[in-house]
Write a structure and sequence with these properties.
- Helix 3 runs antiparallel to helix 5, helix 7 runs antiparallel to helix 10 and helix 18 runs parallel beside helix 19.
- Strand 7, helix 19 and strand 8 form a beta-alpha-beta unit.
- The longest helix is centred in the middle third of the chain and has 53 residues.
- The strands form 2 sheets. Strands 6-7-8-3-9-10 form a 6-stranded mixed β-sheet, sandwiched between helices. A 4-stranded antiparallel β-sheet has the order 2-1-4-5, covered by helices on one side.
- The chain is α/β, with parallel strands linked by helices.
- It folds into 2 domains: 313 residues, ABC transporter transmembrane region fold; 230 residues, Rossmann fold.
- The protein has 21 helices and 10 strands.
- Bound molecules: adenosine-5'-triphosphate.
- Adenosine-5'-triphosphate binds next to helix 4 and helix 12.
- InterPro entries: AAA+_ATPase, ABC1_TM_dom, ABC1_TM_sf, ABC_transporter-like_ATP-bd, ABC_transporter-like_CS, P-loop_NTPase, Type_1_exporter.
- It is found in: Cell membrane.
- GO terms for molecular function: ATP binding.
- It is a multi-pass membrane protein.
- It comes from Azospirillum melinis.
Length: 567
């Protein structure tokens, strides 16, 4: 927790001056607010009782002016506060998203999108609220309380002691409910994350749900999740009612005691009526800050749960580290050398076990392997999502560990089987990943050339907005072949030294597959290519073909058709 609080504090610090302005504005507002009961006392005791009409007018005008200034101050305060608190939230979110971008595919295989989203959204907001609001509210409450208590002491010290006699009991009660509050907050957060996860998964699998006629079951599943979430919400409300209600009741008991004791003293003539009215008004002013301070105890307990949930996300570490000093390769031919690498997804279970592979610059090498043999794992290592446990991989003679990962991924392009696109236009997808300068330098003619080379010109010419046609949120309006070809054009624009084709034709019919491979061979002729596929047509024309077996590569010497058929 202290570590997590320090983490949250780091985002609040840059907004210190804005928050100080908020404190100053709210203190000024509080000061003006505190003058009001005093004005009331003067109106009752001096204006009314003393029958002084001129003083009465002056005091009521003073009250009006105080109200106006207080409204202006509170408006300005809200604007400055929103700027600071939104700034903190966005900075925290950018930090967590930045961290998520460093995590390996293994993380995304293990964590559900809903769970990550729940932490990125609800938990971050909870922490931000607490990190910004707690110090402000505590300071505000303490100062308001100090002002109100000072004035209450001035009016009647004994009555002040009576008013706050039950305060320790209120604080002790809230400390005692801590684990209950934390359990209910965590259960609610988990339940909401499950609901978010449900929508994320189901929306992307809607076609499958419809094709399997599973709409009814899915509606039932959602209703069950809703019921669980409702149960947690009600539980949270009960926690809120109890943790707010019991201290509130104790506070009311204090107020009742003030009226009883103070009233008796007014009857005995030991206290003026105006003094009791002013005292009770200050007590009213003090009740808010007291409840606010007590509420902070519960807020801290809830924020602790969210901080813990965020810490779990932030403690996930990247699988690879950036080199202390990056090496710039002397040449850029795309020669690849894999030297006896060992790698597994869990301890003692190597997927690649002493695998070696040499691809001379400019050659085309094929790779066969049954499902689960480790082909995608090898691709992930070549793109440095992971480092081998033993052995090394070099590109143009430089260990991948010594290359800037961003530069490596520019030089090694992967054309995978599902070619995902991002929301935006076709042109946006083609430019995706280029730096701002590269993107600006990329004119429409170059884009059109890449599109023509990837055999997309005819299709794009028929689209109403050409290259600016949006591909849709999940690009589901495009065929697998169209997505593949957009991805191919994108690869072309990046001019990689090594192109890895990981099951590039699995979504295509044989004729389309043959055309795509012929186009790749034409467009990337002379560049280094590693083609991973079960299909003979993808491996045709390879200089060498290997089979991945038991974590190692063996050269395929039999004819390709026979080798593919045996997969
Ligand atoms: N994130 C992961 N965590 C644990 N095990 C994993 C993970 N990713 C892959 N594996 C396991 O590693 C082995 C190799 O998987 P990989 O995806 O590399 O195989 P593949 O040859 O590409 O298979 P396919 O042709 O079916 O895509 C499999 O047994 C797989 O279950």
């Amino acid at each position: 927790m202290p570590h997590s609080l320090r983490w949250a504090g780091g985002f609040v610090r840059p907004h210190r001056s804005r928050l100080a302005v908020c404190v100053a504005l709210s203190l000024a507002g509080t000061g003006i607010g505190l003058a009001q009961p005093w004005l009331t006392k003067r109106i009752v005791d001096d204006g009314l009782t003393g029958s002084d009409a001129r003083l009465l007018v002056l005091l009521t005008l003073g009250m009006l002016a105080a109200g106006l200034v207080s409204t202006l101050l509170s408006g300005a305060n809200r604007l400055v506060y929103t700027r600071a608190s939104a700034g903190v939230l966005f900075a925290m979110r950018e930090h967590v998203y930045g961290h998520l971008q460093t995590l390996p595919p293994r993380f995304y295989a293990r964590w559900s999108a809903g769970d990550v989203l729940g932490r990125l959204d609800g938990d971050l907001a909870e922490v931000q609220r607490f990190a910004v609001d707690a110090p402000l509210s505590a300071l505000n409450a303490l100062l308001t309380l100090a002002g109100a208590v000072a004035l209450m002491l001035l009016i009647d010290p004994a009555l002040t002691v009576i008013a706050f006699l039950l305060l320790p009991a209120q604080a002790l009660f809230l400390r005692g409910t801590r684990s209950w509050v934390e359990r209910s907050a965590r259960a609610l957060r988990d339940s909401m994350a499950t609901l978010t996860g449900f929508f994320v998964q189901r929306l992307s699998a809607m076609k499958l749900i419809q094709s399997l006629g599973a709409e009814g079951q899915e509606a039932d599943r959602l209703a069950a999740l809703d019921r669980d979430c409702l149960g947690q919400l009600l539980r949270q409300q009960i926690v809120g009612i109890v943790t707010g209600g019991v201290p509130g009741l104790l506070g009311s008991a204090g107020t009742a005691a003030v009226f009883l004791w103070g009233g008796l003293r007014v009857i005995d003539g030991e206290l003026s009526l105006g003094a009791l009215i002013a005292f009770s008004a200050y007590l009213g002013r003090a009740t808010g800050p007291v409840q606010g301070l007590l509420g902070l105890i519960v807020g801290a307990q809830r924020a602790r749960v969210s901080l813990d949930r965020l810490s779990e996300l932030l403690s996930e570490s990247p699988a690879v580290s950036r080199p202390a000093r990056t090496v710039i390769p002397a040449c850029r031919g795309g020669a690849l050398s894999v030297e006896g690498i060992v790698f597994g997804h869990g301890p003692g279970r190597p997927v690649l076990d002493g695998l070696s592979l040499t691809i001379p610059a400019g050659s085309k090498v094929g790779l066969l392997g049954s499902s689960g043999a480790g082909k995608s794992t090898l691709t992930d290592l070549l793109h440095r999502h992971y480092d081998p446990e033993r052995g090394r991989i070099t590109l143009d003679g430089v260990d991948l560990r010594d290359l800037d990962p961003a530069l490596l991924r520019r030089r090694v392009a992967v054309l995978g089987q599902d070619a995902p696109l991002l929301p935006g236009s076709i042109a946006d997808n083609l430019r995706f990943g280029l730096t701002a300068e590269e993107s600006t330098a990329l004119d429409r003619d170059t884009l059109a050339e890449a599109v023509a080379a990837a055999q997309l010109s005819g299709w794009i010419a028929g689209l109403p907005r050409g290259l600016d046609t949006p591909v849709g949120a999940w690009a589901s309006a495009l065929s697998g072949g169209q997505r593949q070809r957009i991805a191919l054009a994108r690869c072309l624009l990046r001019k990689p030294d090594l192109l890895i084709l990981d099951e590039p034709v699995s979504a295509l019919d044989p004729a389309a597959a043959e055309r795509l491979i012929a186009d790749v061979d034409r467009l990337f002729a002379g560049r280094t290519r590693l083609v991973i596929s079960h299909r003979g047509e993808a491996l045709a024309g390879c200089d060498t073909v290997y089979r991945l077996e038991h974590g190692r590569l063996v050269p395929v010497i039999q004819p390709l058709e026979a080798a593919c058929a045996s997969q």
